Amino acid sequence: MTVFAFLSAGGGVGKTTMALHLAHRFLLEGRRVLLVDLDPSAGLSTALLGEEGAARAEESGLTVGHLLWRLLKGAPVDWAGYVARPRLGGLEVDLLVGGEELSDVMGSIWFSATWPSPESVLGRLLGPVFAAYEVVILDTIPFYERRYSMSAFFAAEKVVVVAHPYGAEPARLRRMFAKFAQVLQTTPLDMKTRLLVNKVGNDREGKAWRERLAQAAIPVFKTVIGDRVAYSRVPEMAYVKDRKARGEVESWFREVVEWAATEVEVF
Ligand SMILES: Nc1ncnc2c1ncn2[C@@H]1O[C@H](COP(=O)(O)OP(=O)(O)O)[C@@H](O)[C@H]1O
Ligand SMILES: [Mg+2]
After folding, report:
1. Of 81, 91, 151, 191, which cross-links 122 as Cys (Cβ 3.0–4.6 Å)?
2. What is the number of the ligand 1 atom nearest to the C-alpha of 19?
3. Is residue 57 part of a domain?
C-alpha cells in the first residue's frame, strides 16, 4: 500500500486535478484506489459526485469528517459505509467525501489530541481504512490552513507538492518548506517530497520558472504538466484523448511508480 498526499503552498494550483489524474492511472492498472477528500469545501467530491451528491453525503453524515469524529471517539464504526463509489473516466473509484464537518473535527484533533502529536492523529485514525487499499490518495487544501497539510504529510509515504510557479508562489513554497523543516524535522530534500510543476505554459516565463526550480533544493518531477484544457475535463478524463496531455500524465506516472518503489530515507 502506498499513501500519496497532494499538498500546495498556494490555492488553485491543480492539486485536485492532478490527484484525480494519478488515481485514474492507477485504476487503469487495476489497482484498488481510495481517494480521500480532505477539503472542507469538497472540491474533489464535487468533481466526482456533483454538487448534489456531495451535499447529500454531508446531510447524511457520511463524509470523512463524520467518520473521523466516530473514530476519534473510539465508537464502533463500519467505515465501508462511508465510502462513496463514483466514476472516474468510466471506472469505479472509492472515495471518502470531503465537507464542512472536516473543519470542526480537524480543529478538535488539533487542539485536544496531544499523543503522540496532533499531526499524526489523522493518519493513525484512518490507518486501518488505508490498509484495505493498494493506493491511497489524499487531497488537501493549501498550506495556509496548516492542519491539513501537516496531517496529510504525516499520514503519507509520498508527498506530491503541486506548484503553479508564477507570481508569489515561489515565496510561498519557500515559507512552506521552511515550516516543514522546523515542525516536521524534515528537509525539502527528503525523498518523501517531490514537486510537480503544473499549468506551465511554453512561454518565456514558464521556461524561466522551470529552470529556476530545477536548481532549487527541492526534488522536482522531470515531467512538467502543461496548461491544457483537457486537464480540466474531469471526471471524464478527457486527457486520454489529447495526445500531448496523455503523454505528460504517462511520463509523470512512470516517475511516480518508480519513486513509490523507493524507500523513504530516514535522516
Ligand atoms: N494542467 C492544467 N491545465 C489546465 N487547467 C488546469 C490544469 N491543472 C488544473 N487546472 C484547472 O485549474 C483550476 C484549479 O485546479 P484545482 O485542481 O481545483 O486546484 P487546487 O485543488 O490546487 O485548488 C481548475 O479549474 C482546474 O480545472
Ligand atoms: Mg482542490
Report:
1. 151
2. 17
3. yes
For residue 155, give every residue at least 6 positions away whose Cβ sits within 8 Å of its Cβ, in sequence order, or none.
Answer: 3, 5, 120, 122, 123, 126, 127, 130, 138
| pLDDT, tens digit (0-9, with 9 covering 90-100), for 109-139 | 988 766 678 889 999 999 999 999 999 999 9
- Alpha carbon of 13 to ligand 1 centroid (Å): 6
Q: What is the CATH number of the domain that holds 24?
A: 3.40.50.300
At 150-194, the pLDDT tens digits run: 999 999 999 999 999 888 888 898 889 888 888 888 777 788 999
Backbone phi, psi, residue 193, to 5°: -115, 135
Please, are residues 2 and 260 in contact by the beta-carbon 8 Å criterion? yes
Look at residue 265 and tell me if it is in a domain: no
Count of the separate structural domains present in the chain = 1
Residue of 2, 38, 44 whose CA lies nearest to 19: 44
- Which DSSP symbol is given to 60? T
